[in-house]
């Protein structure tokens, strides 16, 4: 019997090989996505729409995933996804984009969609830089990191995006490092199935192989080993004294709720308004 790679049903083979750099962790994200669909028994993606911005991570759904997708302007994936969801609420809308796209130029859209508990799943591939434009500092670049725009080290504090989203009205927030593949895949499944309502946010810590890992003189394998030590489950992280938390990345599911979403509330208000009009 021919061995069949589990992602083959979900990837457009005619556009392979990908344009990702050799060793880029975006391929792992693509696999996690494909395996999540496969394990949920979802082969027909016609009720799914993928939306991305501009950047390396934005190429994961478009052109590589075999599904309807739209590559929007840099930073504008969330407004486009919101428009699609409002125009056709029966569609499942998934945004996949980078830290620059979602937390920098599109940061305002991100926090407001989360505040509204908008019915979209947002997957942020946090590679710690603007990779496509060759490694500039982004709002998630850790302090001290050397990038092409911070040659003496980044003196700014980064955003902890997942923590910010936890404080909003979002229903689901999780963060995983690329080494936490099984947990990441399970989280995607959870956000697609059991918690399929409202704003769902998954951050994936996946340092850019070219402008972070190799720029620091490390190898892809070495970086993965280092990451396994740095990524600490949330419950252990919270037990660490403050001075030991720096340099660690808390991973896990930070929040999972099933509060009424934007679409639920919108529908109920439309009913109220129509009822009011009819009642006049
Ligand atoms: C309005 C606008 N500003 C700037 C750019 C240039 N640009 C393209 S991709 C990008 C950053 C991408 O970084 P990120 O979203 O983190 O994705 P990555 O490439 O790191 O996966 C920038 C600044 C653009 N295309 N459009
Ligand atoms: Mg990036």
The CATH superfamily name is: Thiamin diphosphate (ThDP)-binding fold, Pyr/PP domains
Radius of gyration: 19 Å
And the CATH topology?
Rossmann fold
Mean pLDDT, to the nearest integer, reads 94
Briefly, what CATH class? Alpha Beta
Number of domains: 1
Largest sheet: 8 strands, mixed
Shape: globular
**Ligand inventory:** thiamine diphosphate, magnesium ion
> What is the name of the CATH architecture?
3-Layer(aba) Sandwich
Major beta sheet, strand line-up: 2-1-3-4-8-7-10-9
Order of helices and strands: HEHEHEHHEEEHEHEHHEHHEH
The poorly predicted ranges are: none
What is the helical fraction, as a range of percent? Answer: 25-40%
Q: Structural class of the helix and strand makeup? A: alpha/beta
What separation lies between the terminal Cα atoms? 69 Å
Tell me how many strands there are. Answer: 10
Q: How many helices?
A: 12
% residues in beta strands: 15-25%
Structure overview:
The chain has 280 residues and is α/β, with parallel strands linked by helices. The chain has a single domain (13-279), classed as Rossmann fold (3-Layer(aba) Sandwich), CATH 3.40.50. 39% of the residues lie in helices and 18% in strands. The chain contains twelve helices and ten strands. The strands form two sheets. It has an eight-stranded mixed sheet with strand order 2-1-3-4-8-7-10-9, with helices on both faces. The protein has a two-stranded antiparallel sheet with strand order 5-6. Strand 5 and strand 6 form a beta hairpin. It is globular and about 65 Å long. The chain starts with 25 loop residues before the first helix and ends with a helix. Thiamine diphosphate (TPP) binds at residues 54-57, 74, 97-101, 125, 127, 129-133, 138. Magnesium ion (MG) is lined by residues 55, 98-100, 127, 129-131, 138.
């Amino acid at each position: 019997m021919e061995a069949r790679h589990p992602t083959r049903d979900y990837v457009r083979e005619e556009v392979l090989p990908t344009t990702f750099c050799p060793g880029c962790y975006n391929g792992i994200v693509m696999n996690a996505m494909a395996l999540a669909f496969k394990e949920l028994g979802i082969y027909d993606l016609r009720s799914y729409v993928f939306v991305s911005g501009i950047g390396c991570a934005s190429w994961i759904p478009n052109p590589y995933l075999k599904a309807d997708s739209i590559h929007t302007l840099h930073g504008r994936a969330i407004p486009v996804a919101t428009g699609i969801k409002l125009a056709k609420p029966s569609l499942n809308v998934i945004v996949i984009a980078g830290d620059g796209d979602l937390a920098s130029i599109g940061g305002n859209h991100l926090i407001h969609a989360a505040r509204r508990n908008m019915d979209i799943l947002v997957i942020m591939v946090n590679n710690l830089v603007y990779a496509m434009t060759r490694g500039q500092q982004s709002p998630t670049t850790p302090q001290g990191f050397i990038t092409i725009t911070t040659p003496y080290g980044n003196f700014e504090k980064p955003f902890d995006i997942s923590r910010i989203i936890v404080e909003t009205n979002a229903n689901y927030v999780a963060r995983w490092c690329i080494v936490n593949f099984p947990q990441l895949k399970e989280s995607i499944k959870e956000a697609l199935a059991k918690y399929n309502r409202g704003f769902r946010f998954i951050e994936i810590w996946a340092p850019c192989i070219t402008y972070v890992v190799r720029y620091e003189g490390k190898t892809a394998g070495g970086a993965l080993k280092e990451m396994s030590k740095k990524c600490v489950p949330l419950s252990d992280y919270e037990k660490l004294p403050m001075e030991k938390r720096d340099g660690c990345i808390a991973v896990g599911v930070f929040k999972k709720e099933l509060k009424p979403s934007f679409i639920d509330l919108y529908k109920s208000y439309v009913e109220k308004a129509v009822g009011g009009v009819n009642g006049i």
